[in-house]
UniProtKB/TrEMBL annotation, chain A:
Organism phylogeny: Bacteria, Pseudomonadati, Pseudomonadota, Gammaproteobacteria, Alteromonadales
Residue positions binding [4Fe-4S] cluster 3: 124, 144, 147, 150
UniProt keyword DNA-binding present: no
The protein's enzyme class: translocase
InterPro entries: 4Fe-4S_dom (IPR007202), 4Fe4S_Fe-S-bd (IPR017896), 4Fe4S_Fe_S_CS (IPR017900), Elect_transpt_cplx_RnfB/RsxB (IPR010207), RnfB/RsxB_Proteobac (IPR016463), RnfB_subfamily (IPR050294)
Gene Ontology BP, a term: electron transport chain
Keyword Transcription regulation among record annotations: no
UniProt keyword list: 4Fe-4S, Cell inner membrane, Cell membrane, Electron transport, Iron, Iron-sulfur, Membrane, Metal-binding, Repeat, Translocase, Transmembrane, Transmembrane helix, Transport
HAMAP family, A to Z: RsxB_RnfB
Protein name: Ion-translocating oxidoreductase complex subunit B
Automatic annotation (TrEMBL), chain B:
NCBIfam families found in the cross-reference section: PRK05035.1 (NF003454), rnfC (TIGR01945)
One biological process term in Gene Ontology: electron transport chain
Gene Ontology molecular function: 4 iron, 4 sulfur cluster binding; electron transfer activity; metal ion binding
PANTHER family per UniProt: ION-TRANSLOCATING OXIDOREDUCTASE COMPLEX SUBUNIT C
Family matches, as Gene3D superfamilies: 3.30.70.20, NADH-ubiquinone oxidoreductase 51kDa subunit
Primary role: Part of a membrane-bound complex that couples electron transfer with translocation of ions across the membrane.
Lineage of producing organism: Bacteria, Pseudomonadati, Pseudomonadota, Gammaproteobacteria, Alteromonadales
Record-given protein name: Ion-translocating oxidoreductase complex subunit C
Length: 200, 541
């Protein structure tokens, strides 16, 4: 008799937990592989395709499936280090086959030369170029990721990639850059300066 | 811990941890009366002079402007307008080097003074007590007043807070060595400062005002005591000289015994702090209708033959003030903007005075020896003893060098007020504050990059969605078109077969006609073929 009671009790418990688990599986369903999300979070989101995949998310999926972590030039060393930590693998130097780490750049269209062909607009992975057919195009600077993809399609070569200008509020306290900044500033300043020593 | 009210009512002075006593060196600059240097040949007005976004330029090159005329329109809540410090012509709107350690240029309006100093029509509000709070706050905002103590936070925005203010604290501490701009202002314009304090009290609706001055300024204390005589809501608090007593959080701890909780503002515990210079500017803005056009700047250091404090128009080139102070330039001279503790060496001297410039210091090498080479940290702990924010400077330094940003944040790097006390006592001459500034800039940069990456990711995903949607729509269109074609063909086929069927159903009746029709078709076909052959023959021949 007691065996039957035990079996029934266990059975009921199993049923209850089964229902709870079943409910949780539906309610708290994870949409996709969370590791892909985490990798995507680390990648710089330039969507430049230098890794050989059409965007950062496809590369994140590839890494999750075992691809190398050193194919992202815009992210550079820092990204590789973070990815190595996340994936539990050894950090390795950037694969130069995919490009070199470079300063941050932004695309600028020389607007008087633009013929309004919309080719760059179609190439931009983040819709950062504004314009219409036979109308001048321009880059929305703060949306531009500097991915370089608009330069190639331009039939009149009117797109330049220029390094992002340092501003006082974003300056990184790199004391060695002061001399260079001052030299630049002197070029645009007409007034005479009293020569003073730059402390390094 | 006692509550604020009982602490303040007891009239005691609390204390804050750490702090140092560097040589004060306030004289000789504080012994000379305020003076006004001649007009410079040009005024350089950077569009951004305070914490917050720059305004939109409302003048063009070649425009004639009057003294006090608005040059920029503030657009966002933290924005402040800028005004012409004297009458003249806008000679350029271009990038000019800024008074910043980096020496990087920023957009500035350059004015060529005409020497007439003609005012625009002013709108003074001498009976400000008849105005409502919003009008006065707007007046202060329109006057472009930012906190003149150092950080440059828009004063109107501080006043516009809806939180109840228990105490208004007026900061006349001026704890950094050499600097004596507020000292001189209090000695010579005590009545005006008190008028400004009363306006601030009226706007903030604070029950009581605490005016704090360090005990190394007896003349300023005497002048202010005389000016507030008779007022029972303004209390003078003389605090002992210690650096950095003038820091906002440090002064609050001294006067109220309270610590401002991490991540909160003094406003959150019912306190509002303003600098004496700001109070004076508020008086000028409200009672005289004059926007913020000038400020007191201390000119000091052994290399100046005429040290003192001057009324400098905003935009005055530092080189002009150096000439006023009798600066003897030589190759090794350093020009420091701010004091010896928190200031920075100017990379070049044709940068302008801005709203937050309080001191120009030109020390000789004996007076302020340049930093020696950095040695290894010996973990002596002297820096931790003097830190007014009870941080662990040596630990932060290790973490900053290791670029361990998470640990830096969990060790409260952002509570550091960059007072420089730790670097001052460091026996290994480690430029500690430099490491903190660098680390802070890097952490902010990472946060900015992250926000940008997130934006790019969203835009990329939206674009992918859009392309996918367009593709689906195109496929759908093609499918529909194909279906329509198929349907038409089927219908056509159906009518043909039904024709044929109906023809087959009545063979007897239409047989002859059907045959005739078939013959006619065959003939026509043959004729067509022949015609085609003929033409091809003709072409061949």
């Amino acid at each position: 008799m007691s065996i039957v009671v035990g079996l029934i009790a266990i059975g009921v418990l199993a049923l209850i937990f089964g229902v709870i688990l079943g409910f949780a599986a539906v309610k708290f369903k994870v949409e996709s592989d969370p590791i892909v999300e985490q990798i995507d979070e680390i990648l710089p989101q330039t969507q430049c395709g230098q890794c050989g995949y059409p965007g950062c998310r496809p590369y994140a999926e590839a890494i999750a499936n075992g691809d190398e972590i050193n194919k992202c030039p815009p992210g550079g060393e820092a990204t590789i280090k973070q990815l190595a930590d996340l994936m539990g693998v050894e950090a390795k130097p950037l694969d130069s086959a995919h490009g070199e780490e470079d300063v941050k750049k932004v695309a600028i269209i020389r607007e008087d030369e633009c013929i309004g062909c919309t080719k760059c607009i179609q190439a931009c992975p983040v819709d950062a170029i504004l314009g219409a057919a036979k109308q001048m195009h321009t880059v929305i600077e703060h949306e531009c990721t500097g991915c370089d993809l608009c330069v190639e399609p331009c039939p009149v070569d009117c797109i330049d990639m220029v390094p992002v200008k340092a501003k006082p509020e974003t300056w990184q306290w790199d004391l060695t850059s002061i001399k260079q900044n001052v030299a630049q500033a002197k070029n645009i300043s007409s007034a005479d300066t009293i020569p003073i020593k730059v402390v390094e | 811990m006692r509550d604020i009210k009982s602490f303040v009512d007891a009239g005691v002075i609390g204390h804050f941890p750490g702090g140092i006593h560097p040589p004060e060196r306030k004289s000789p600059a504080n012994t000379v009366a305020l003076r006004r240097p001649p007009l410079p040949s040009e005024l350089i007005l950077p569009l951004r002079q305070h914490i917050g976004p720059s305004g939109q330029c409302t003048v063009e090159v070649g425009d004639k402007v009057l003294k006090g005329q608005q040059l920029t329109e503030a657009q966002l809540s933290q924005g402040l307008p800028l005004h012409a410090p004297t009458s003249g012509t806008v000679s350029a709107i271009e990038e000019r080097p800024m008074a910043h350690a980096s020496g990087l240029p920023e957009l500035a309006i350059v004015i060529q003074p005409d020497g007439e100093d003609r005012w625009i029509t002013r709108q003074p509000l001498p009976n400000y007590r008849d105005c409502d709070r919003a009008t006065l706050i707007e007046t202060i905002q329109k006057a472009g007043i930012a906190g003149l103590g150092g950080a440059g936070f828009p004063t109107a925005q501080k006043l516009a807070s809806q939180k109840p203010i228990q105490y208004l604290i007026i900061n006349g501490v001026e704890c950094e060595p050499y600097i004596c701009a507020d000292d001189r202002l209090m000695r010579e314009h005590a009545i005006d400062i008190v008028a400004g304090i009363e306006i601030l009290q009226f706007i903030s609706n604070a029950g009581q005002v605490l005016l704090a001055i360090e005990d190394n300024k007896p003349e300023a204390i005497a002048a202010m005591r005389e000016a507030i005589d008779g007022s029972d809501s303004i209390k003078l608090r003389v605090i002992p000289t210690k650096y950095p007593s003038g820091g906002e959080k440090q002064l609050i701890e001294l006067l109220t015994g309270q610590q401002v909780p991490q991540g909160q503002l003094p406003l959150d515990i019912g306190l509002l702090m303003q600098n004496t210079g700001t109070a004076y500017a508020v008086k000028r803005a409200v009672i005289d209708g004059e926007p913020l056009l000038e400020r007191v700047v201390t000119l000091t250091g052994d290399l100046m033959s005429q040290p003192g404090n001057v009324w400098a128009l905003l935009g005055t080139p530092i080189a002009h003030l150096l000439a006023e102070g009798g600066f003897n330039a030589d190759g090794d001279a350093r020009v420091i903007m701010g004091g010896p503790m928190m200031g920075f060496t100017l990379p070049l001297t044709d940068v302008p005075v801005i709203k937050t410039t309080n001191c120009i210091l030109t020390p000789s090498l004996q007076e302020l020896p340049p930093a020696a080479d950095e040695m290894a940290c010996i973990r002596c702990g002297a820096c931790a003893d003097v830190c007014p924010a009870t941080l662990q400077p040596q630990q932060l330094q290790w973490l900053a060098k290791a670029k361990d940003y998470d640990a830096l944040e969990s060790n409260d790097l952002f509570d550091c007020i960059e007072c420089g006390a730790c670097a001052y006592v460091c026996p290994s001459e480690i430029p500690l504050v430099h490491y903190y500034r660098k680390a802070k800039a890097e952490i902010r940069n990472i946060a900015r990059e992250k926000a940008k990456a997130e934006l790019a990711r969203q835009r990329f995903e939206r674009r992918q969605e859009r392309l996918e949607r367009e593709k689906q729509e195109r496929l759908e269109r093609h499918r529909k078109a194909a279906e329509a074609r198929k349907k038409m063909q089927q219908e056509k086929a159906a009518t043909e077969t039904s024709d044929a069927a109906s023809a087959a159903n009545k063979p007897a009746q239409d047989k002859s006609s059907a045959v005739a029709a078939a013959i006619a078709r065959a003939k026509a076909k043959k004729a067509a073929q022949q015609a085609a052959n003929n033409t091809s023959d003709e072409e061949n021949s």
